[in-house]
Amino acid sequence: MESRLINDLKKIVGEQNILTSKEDLLCYAYDATPGFSHMPEAVVSPADTDEVSRVLILANNEKIPVYPRGSGTNLSAGTVPTKGGIVLLMTRFNKIIEVDDANLVAIAEPGVIVAELNKAVEEFGLIYPPDPGTVTTATLGGTVSENAGGLRGLKYGVSKHYVMGLEVVLADGSILKTGGKNVKDVAGYDLTKLFTGAEGTLGVITRIIVKLVPAPEAKKSMMAIFSNLDNAGKAIAAIIASKVIPATLEILDNATIRTVEDYAKVGLPIEAEAVLLIEVDGIPEVVEKEAAKVTEVLKANHADKIQVAQDAAERDKIWAARRAALPALAKLRPTTFTEDATVPRSKVPDMIRAVNQAAAKYNVTIGTFGHAGDGNLHPTIVCDLRDKAEMERVYQAMDEIFTTAIRLGGTLSGEHGIGLGKLKYMEDQFGAVGIRTMRTIKKALDPNCILNPGKLVGEC
Amino acid sequence: MESRLINDLKKIVGEQNILTSKEDLLCYAYDATPGFSHMPEAVVSPADTDEVSRVLILANNEKIPVYPRGSGTNLSAGTVPTKGGIVLLMTRFNKIIEVDDANLVAIAEPGVIVAELNKAVEEFGLIYPPDPGTVTTATLGGTVSENAGGLRGLKYGVSKHYVMGLEVVLADGSILKTGGKNVKDVAGYDLTKLFTGAEGTLGVITRIIVKLVPAPEAKKSMMAIFSNLDNAGKAIAAIIASKVIPATLEILDNATIRTVEDYAKVGLPIEAEAVLLIEVDGIPEVVEKEAAKVTEVLKANHADKIQVAQDAAERDKIWAARRAALPALAKLRPTTFTEDATVPRSKVPDMIRAVNQAAAKYNVTIGTFGHAGDGNLHPTIVCDLRDKAEMERVYQAMDEIFTTAIRLGGTLSGEHGIGLGKLKYMEDQFGAVGIRTMRTIKKALDPNCILNPGKLVGEC
Q1: Alpha carbon distance B289, A22 (integer Å)
Q2: How far is the C-alpha of A447 from the C-alpha of B96, rounded, in Å?
Q3: Do residues A246 and A279 make contact, with C-beta atoms less than 8 angstroms apart?
Q4: Which residues are bridge partners to B400 per DSSP?
Q5: pLDDT by residue (tens digit) across B369-422?
Q6: For A216-328, CATH number?
Q7: Does the pLDDT of residue B237 top 90, yes or no?
Q8: B342: which strand partners?
């Protein structure tokens, strides 16, 4: 980038809020997605909406790519500055502006860490439900832009279900306000939802109004072990069919069970084909009733062993197995790809079997765990990025996994977004008309394609 | 319209599926919104998506306006063919394609009546929650396009919260498929939400995938009478603050109470400033617990009288008052405008007072009732469309009501849409950037502005 432009950027954000040295830029050349990196030309940290607007006006006039970024925890290469230009670091937008408990909403800036927001609303007896694994690191802006989910998605949904309004700076620097505190608001096109999950390709989010919900008074956790995968699949369907919607309904497949047991010695039987981990929440009477119903359904579907946590320590022990899944798998090999291929919940066993077949066919190691209740699985491929021959097989296995998800009526992403990682499958899911429609919207709102170019809709 | 074009349309849909006589066209010149009507040039009833596509290709080439229409029950003049052209009557799209209880979704065509869909899912113990007053007449496509809500909106939301996927024919005739059966689906821009509530201005919906929820096992209804409006307002806020989210939390103001009592003799005290009608639902234990908590909150906030329905007959009696509100008000004068100005719930008393002031200031009769729990009020103006002097005052009162809603942080529409009725206030709510952004999207997707032209975003 010409030094004239660097100087212009310094004038906008102040000299101390721009990084240009090689070692500094290197830290922003990648995110949490293996296999993607590219050096930016400058990292710019604006203080307020006006500064964001002025940076975008400059970037738009000069056609410089701009990549909005929070903590860089995303898993689809959504924040990698693949065409150089400016990483727009939003971490100075770190204020929780308001917790309005009468209207059950909070207003916060995008750089607020999700766990901090939850801490702030907790004293009002409220929660902000989206809880990705990175909740103590990830920013609200990043999770909203990538539509992050988490363990409670089955009952509580993902980020988009909680975003009520946004302030967004558009590519030309103009400032758009969408939505508000109204529970019912159907005026105009749903721009709030359009910019949520747009992965920074349509605008830069500078303020977020989120819906809060009352914290559940009670929780109850259960673990069920299945020697047969199909029975686990039937149990998942039967729980939902029994009209219980657990907060959490997780599955670990055999490869994950073996790895977790080897890593954490939590007492899982390594021959089991599946472990289900379930938590119901709500008011105490409901929790007891639903836990009893779930236990009954698990029994009826031939669970070999069912364990219901009787206290907090037992609850922690149950969830330790789930928490160990990703670190245990990640420890096996140098590189970890955590995917989020998602299918209608009735197709979960088919999907797990297809993943296992792909692992065998391409001779790669894949453990599958994830949010079985909502069909959002995490086939986790462990490998070595430096081994070209292995990586070729890894990418072939990935192709097969995503193609299968789409064939089963699923989607490329349950909660990680598309970014660059899944771009090549987009047309398989959306068809030519779908991609064209998305690109039409992208081009209409960002005619110079400066905002996170090349991501989500590809080149435009 | 030239007879050449009528002949082309006949070739597409068959001679029996096009209306062109004056008396037939007249039936489609208006909808349920007073004060708006215009004759179309043809009413065309396609049988399938392919016919819709061919009609749109023709209309787009010839730049003929097209107005998708269901049962015409909408309250914002969204289906009035104000520029002539083709009314695209979607009532032949009347098939419920699938009820998939394992995945809690249904797939239906847009011409299906909402009550019919509910009947079909009821046998699976499920409900489709949006329940506008017109539920036995309105089509699924119309309610999805206008984002209809209803009495259960506080707990269950409006149509957009249930639309999981769509098939849409775009202006150029291409067929777009969005979303699917996946509970978690964050791939790509949220086109499903963009077309939901777009009032037919971006495409013609030909298939809808909706989310279903388990039917509540039990319900309990309550009525509370307040001599003081502020206390009623405080009670609304206190119920939510007590972490109870009722399915329904309705208010009737004094003008409505007087009118309902005069009309239906249900025993309401005509001096009361407000009546709250509340229903909690869920599993029986929760319902009992929540009903007790609500009663306690009502007492603490100085309700003069509280009545809890002990059986179905008493429940019906309570809801008779609410059901009578609109017909009772409508009976007063020849013309009824039912508006849906919506505010954050903490502002409900301010809003009711502002409506009363507007009624006094402009000497018009307004009864206000509606969904207090979610801030979605229905100020209902009764008047005589033939009285020009009165109508001038009516429109001034409306201006004041909507301006106040926006000033209170509210929105122009909680569940009726914008159409033509509220177009002139759009810039007040969204600002110049908001309107420009919506028009940019409209123009990008419908460059010839053939789809419901002049509605929602105005001229483009």
Answers
A1: 62
A2: 41
A3: yes
A4: none
A5: 999 999 999 999 999 999 999 999 999 999 999 999 999 999 999 999 999 989
A6: 3.30.70.3450
A7: no
A8: B376, B411
Name the B residues in 124-153 with CB < 8 Å from any A CB. 125, 146-147, 149, 153
Contact B445 A445 (CB under 8 A): no
ipTM of the complex: 0.95
**What three-state secondary structure class fits B334?**
coil
- Closest C-alpha among B457, B460, B451 to residue B87: B451
Which residue type sits at A37? S
**A341 lies within 8 A of chain B by CB:** no
Give ranges for CATH 3.30.465.10 in chain A.
Answer: 96-214
Q: Do A158 and B345 touch (CB under 8 A)?
A: no
Domain with CATH 3.30.43.10 in chain A: 3-89
The residue assigned the tokens 């009035």 is B80
Rounded to 10 degrees, the C-alpha dihedral B33/B36/B37/B40 comes to -90
User: Is the pLDDT at A195 greater than 90, yes or no?
Assistant: yes
CATH dotted code for B216-331: 3.30.70.2190
Dist. CA A306–CA A325, nearest whole Å:
20
Domain A3-89 class, CATH top level: alpha beta
Question: Which residues sit opposite B87 in a β-bridge?
Answer: B43, B67
Contacts of B107 in chain A (CB under 8 A): none
C-alpha distance from residue A326 to each of A252, A263, A393, B380 (Å) = 11, 11, 21, 57
- Token couple for B120: 């079909």
State the pLDDT at residue B240. 87
Which is nearest to B417 in space by CA: A182, A184, A179, A211?
A184
Cβ distance A64 to A86 under 8 Å?
yes
CA-atom Rg of chain B in angstroms: 22
Q: Domain A96-214 has what CATH class?
A: alpha beta
Structure-block tokens of residue A364: 């790669």
- Provide φ and ψ at B161, rounded to 5°: -75, -5
Place of tokens 């789930």: A322
Q: For B318-355, write each residue's pLDDT tens digit.
A: 999 999 999 999 999 999 999 999 999 889 999 999 99
Strand residues in A17-135 grouped as ranges (E):
18-19, 42-44, 66-69, 86-89, 96-100, 105-108, 126-127
User: Cβ separation of A194 and B194 shorter than 8 Å?
Assistant: yes
Per the rule left: phi > 0, alpha: psi between -120 and 50, beta: everything else, B451 is: beta
Distance from CA of B414 to the nearest CA of A (A): 5
pLDDT at B108 over 90: yes
The CA distance from A138 to A117, in Å, is 11
**DSSP sequence for A238-281:** HHHHTT---SEEEEEEHHHHHHHHHHH-----TT-SEEEEEEEE
CB pair distance less than 8 Å for B374 and A184: yes
